[in-house]
């Protein structure tokens, strides 16, 4: 289907969204020139892929990005800790890497700038990426609360990320 938009125009659009959502320069780090786009039937960007890997999806409700695990890994190299990161205890890391939600009582550090609804990276204390998901609490609330879900995990890396150590 032809939308009338060039690949450069689509790439510029998603990079601008990423820069707005995660900070200047994030779009370049997250979306290389080789990425491809999956469009909706109305011509809107739905998914951005690099090869067969999903980097991000553009939410139809608000136009913001939800990250795939590959996109989260690319973004984590660009963002200096603690930006958009929620660090969890080592003993729950395998569960979160398998896609389980991050509970507030297991959070050991969180970016103070995180707001409920933000897309975040779930990491270990030594910044090993475990998963990506949506924050249900603000950064300070994650540290203050002893119960409840802090991050609704969308996609985990799987336990193979522990063999990389």
From TrEMBL:
Report the protein name in the record.
Answer: Pseudouridine synthase
Q: Which SUPFAM superfamilies match?
A: Pre-PUA domain, PUA domain-like
A molecular function (GO) term: RNA binding
* CDD domains named among the record's database cross-references: PUA_archaeosine_TGT
Return the Pfam families for the record.
Answer: PUA, TGT_C2
The UniProt entry, under InterPro entries, shows:
PUA (IPR002478), PUA-like_sf (IPR015947), PUA_sf (IPR036974), TGT_C2 (IPR029402), TGT_C2_sf (IPR038250), Uncharacterised_CHP00451 (IPR004521)
* Entry-linked Gene3D superfamilies: ArcTGT, C2 domain, PUA domain
Q: Which organism is it from?
A: Methanoculleus bourgensis
């Amino acid at each position: 289907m032809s939308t009338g938009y060039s690949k450069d125009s689509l790439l510029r659009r998603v990079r601008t969204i990423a820069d707005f959502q995660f900070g200047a320069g994030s779009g370049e780090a997250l979306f290389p020139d080789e990425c491809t786009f999956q469009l909706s039937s109305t011509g809107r960007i739905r998914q951005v892929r690099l090869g067969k890997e999903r980097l991000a999806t553009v939410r139809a409700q608000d136009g913001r990005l939800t990250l795939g695990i590959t996109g989260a890994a690319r973004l984590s190299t660009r963002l200096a800790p603690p930006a958009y990161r929620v660090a969890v205890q080592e003993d729950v890391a395998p569960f979160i890497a398998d896609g389980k939600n991050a509970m507030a009582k297991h959070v050991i550090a969180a970016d103070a700038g995180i707001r409920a609804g933000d897309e975040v990276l779930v990491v270990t204390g030594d910044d090993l990426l475990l998963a990506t998901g949506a924050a249900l609490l603000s950064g300070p609330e994650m540290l203050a609360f002893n119960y409840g879900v802090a991050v609704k995990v969308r996609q985990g890396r799987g336990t193979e990320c522990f063999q990389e150590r």
